[in-house]
Amino acid sequence: MLTCGHCGRRLCVVYVGRRIGYHIYRCDRSKLMLARPRCMTTNGARTDVAVIEELLRAVEPLAIDAALEAERMHLEGEAQRRRMVELDLQQARYEASLAERRYAACDPDNRLIAAQPEKSWEATLRRVEACEARLNERQVRDDAAMPDFAGLAQDLKAA
Ligand SMILES: [Zn+2]
Q1: Tell me: the pLDDT tens digits for 104-146?
Q2: Which end of the chain is more exposed for a tag (fewer CB within 10 A), N or C?
Q3: Interval between CA 29 and ligand 1 midpoint (Å)
Q4: Domains (range + CATH), the chain
Q5: Centre of ligand 1 from the C-alpha of residue 53, in Å
Q6: Most confident of 13-17, 20-24, 36-40, 123-127
Q7: How close is the Cα of 11 to the center of ligand 1, in Å?
Q8: Higher model confidence: residue 100 or residue 19?
């Protein structure tokens, strides 16, 4: 992707060094095609660092926008999941109150008839407890540290 500052042609990557290999960028076209002296040769590692720094400088504003959008989507998803659990809890409480009324309406002297509504009522109460536990777990998770999206965007080099 790098081009020569003299002739505008693409630079070649050349790997050199016998023991510790390293790479350089150079423009061989004028030498190969026109038998002229080579336009340029440059240190590969330093050039790569300069390209990376320039790339990071260019994408940083976009990365910050992306981080803010990711944070917004994360919070929105969490709120939606919390709302689902709250709706489950609301439904479970409603079913428990219905089951309680059915049990209360039974003739207490007729144990055979009262046994089933009692079991249903107990089952709905267990569901209420399970929903409350899920809601508490979610609260604990919400209170825990949220991923640091903005920090990630501001420290792209480390990321
Ligand atoms: Zn050149």
Answers
A1: 888 877 777 778 888 999 999 999 999 999 999 888 877 776 6
A2: N
A3: 6
A4: 60-154 (1.20.120)
A5: 24
A6: 123-127
A7: 7
A8: 100
**CA of 33 relative to ligand 1 center, distance in Å:** 11
* Residue list, CB under 5 A from ion ligand 1: 4, 6-7, 27, 39
Instruction: Tell me the CA–centroid distance for residue 123 and ligand 1, in Å.
Output: 80
User: Rounded to the nearest whole angstrom, what is the distance from the C-alpha of residue 57 to the centroid of ligand 1?
Assistant: 27
Tell me how far the alpha carbon of residue 99 lies from the centroid of ligand 1, in angstroms: 85
3-state SS record for the chain? CCECCCCCCECEEEEECCCCCEEEEECCHHHHHHCCCCCCEEEHHHHHHHHHHHHHHHHHHHHHHHHHHHHHHHHHHHHHHHHHHHHHHHHHHHHHHHHHHHHHHCCCCCHHHHHHHHHHHHHHHHHHHHHHHHHHHHHHHHHCCCCCHHHHHHCCCCC
CA of 42 to the centre of ligand 1 (A): 12
pLDDT of residue 158: 65
Question: Which has the higher per-residue pLDDT, 126 or 58?
Answer: 126
